[in-house]
Write a structure and sequence with these properties.
This protein is of the alpha/beta class. It folds into two domains: 290 residues, Mur-like, catalytic domain (UDP-N-acetylmuramoyl-L-alanine:D-glutamate ligase), CATH 3.40.1190; 129 residues, Alpha-Beta Complex (Protein-Tyrosine Phosphatase, Chain A). It has 16 helices and 17 strands. The strands form three sheets. Strands 4-3-2-5-1-6-7-8 form an eight-stranded mixed β-sheet, sandwiched between helices. Strand 14, helix 13 and strand 15 form a beta-alpha-beta unit. Helix 12 runs parallel beside helix 13. The longest helix is centred in the first third of the chain and has 20 residues.
């Protein structure tokens, strides 16, 4: 084996995406099943699953549990994906876990058990479980990478599952109809394990209800069961809500995450936490309230302010549904700002821009530093047809895009891709 463990890990990115559980099951068996060393919560969904994961993890720590979370992708540093006790894994911890995974992969290939090389995500998933076992984690909150049914994380035996939302995204992998996508995400539902869901279309709800019934899994509709009343926002930021579930009345609580859609995510997270408490993992009402009030989830309606007074509102908004949530937030604020935008070639850039452009003053199109990023000039054709009267510019780098946008206004919006946000945060670190 040559190269460092992390060099090896990044070399796997050229294998792309591969669905199926055979590889990861073989790897985990050879590792001695680290995924069974802790209890787990499994979260799927088109949008919102990261926010729900972060809220649950934060509340579990507030309840005194040694909790971990596994999310993807990362914004800047790979170690963001592996969080134990609120702290990212160190590079050394990740390196040791990947090296252990690489060792068993080499042996499995030598013995002919693996005839197809595992992907980047399969190895990071196995490494996450190894990190969590080594850290003696009590419970891990794990976000699905893509889909659900054949995602590498679907080897878990969770206490509770959740499906946050269903919308069109990744159609080349999950299907072109809502029912097909819902069926893939419903693949995380396990026999007898409660599943909490957020707002769903009737088509998606029918699919998920059928799968839940087949698995004798209790279906919990957070959007129907949780009563939420918006309150005047707190001076400290975020939003305030009055919250009541079938189990208890929480009264007025603060939610640190901005945006109406985060209220839906909060309702899902609260019902998941209540299910955990009902099933033997103690989570007090005070811990749930603390989790809502103190959660951090970067890159989701995150405001970054520079010392010279310039600011940027960062939001992933990498599909039309996510863009609609950002658009609702911008409409509520009522101030039009320049938008710095990039999208991946496999995303619905037209649908994203159609949602956002009514609420911006100008548009600066750029590219993220990944081969998947769409050419800004291709985006220009789309934007020019959508908003012929809006000023549109192109920039061949994120740095120049930010510079141009800030010349138009000291207060800008950045959206369209998690990869773009990662590049922006790196640029801001240098500022």
């Amino acid at each position: 084996m040559t190269g460092t463990p992390l060099d090896y890990l990044f070399s796997l990115e050229h294998f792309g995406i591969k669905f199926g559980l055979e590889n990861v099951r073989a790897i985990l068996e050879a590792l001695g099943h680290p995924e069974n060393a802790f209890r787990s919560v499994h979260i799927a969904g088109t949008n919102g699953k990261g926010s729900v994961t972060a809220i649950i993890d934060t509340a579990l720590r507030a309840a005194g549990h040694k909790s971990a979370r596994y999310t993807s992708p990362h914004l800047v540093h790979l170690t963001e994906r592996f969080v134990v006790g609120g702290q990212q894994a160190t590079a050394d911890e990740l390196s040791r876990a990947v090296d252990r995974v690489r060792t068993v992969i080499v042996d499995l290939q030598r013995r002919g058990v693996l005839d197809v090389h595992p992907t980047f995500f399969e190895v990071t998933t196995a490494a996450a479980f190894e990190i969590f076992r080594n850290a003696s984690v009590e419970v891990a909150v794990c976000e699905v990478g893509l889909g659900g049914r054949l995602d590498a994380t679907n080897v878990l035996s969770p206490m509770v599952t959740a499906i946050t939302s269903i919308a069109l995204d990744h159609q080349q992998y999950l299907g072109t109809a809502i029912a097909e996508i819902a069926a893939e995400k419903a693949g995380i539902i396990k026999h007898g394990v409660p599943v909490v869901v957020g707002p769903l279309t009737a088509e998606a709800e029918r699919v998920i209800r059928r799968v839940a019934q087949e698995h004798e899994a209790r279906l919990i509709r957070a959007d129907e069961e949780v009563a939420v009343e918006p309150l005047p926002p707190p001076s400290s930021g975020g939003q305030a809500i009055r919250l009541r579930t079938p189990r208890r009345n929480y009264g007025a609580v603060n939610l640190r995450l901005e945006g109406r859609h985060q209220i839906d995510n909060a309702a899902i997270a609260v019902r998941v936490l209540e299910c955990l408490d009902e099933n033997g993992l103690a989570v007090s009402p005070e811990a749930i309230v603390d989790g809502l009030a103190t959660v951090r989830w970067p890159g989701r309606l995150e405001r970054v302010e520079l010392a010279d007074g310039r600011s940027a509102l960062l939001d992933a908004a990498h599909n039309p549904a996510g863009a609609a949530a950002l658009a609702a937030f911008l409409a509520q604020r009522g101030v039009r700002r320049p938008l710095v935008f990039a999208a991946m070639r496999d995303k619905d850039a037209r649908g994203i821009l159609a949602a956002l452009t009514p609420y911006i003053s100008s548009l600066v199109l750029t590219r993220a530093t990944t081969a998947r990023s769409a050419d800004p000039h291709a985006l220009l054709e789309i934007a020019s047809a959508l908003v012929p009267d809006t000023p549109v510019y192109t920039a061949d780098s994120v740095r120049s895009a930010l510079s141009h946008a800030w010349k138009l206004s000291p207060d800008i919006v950045v959206a369209g891709s998690i990869f773009l946000l990662g590049d922006v945060l790196q640029e801001l670190e240098r500022t």
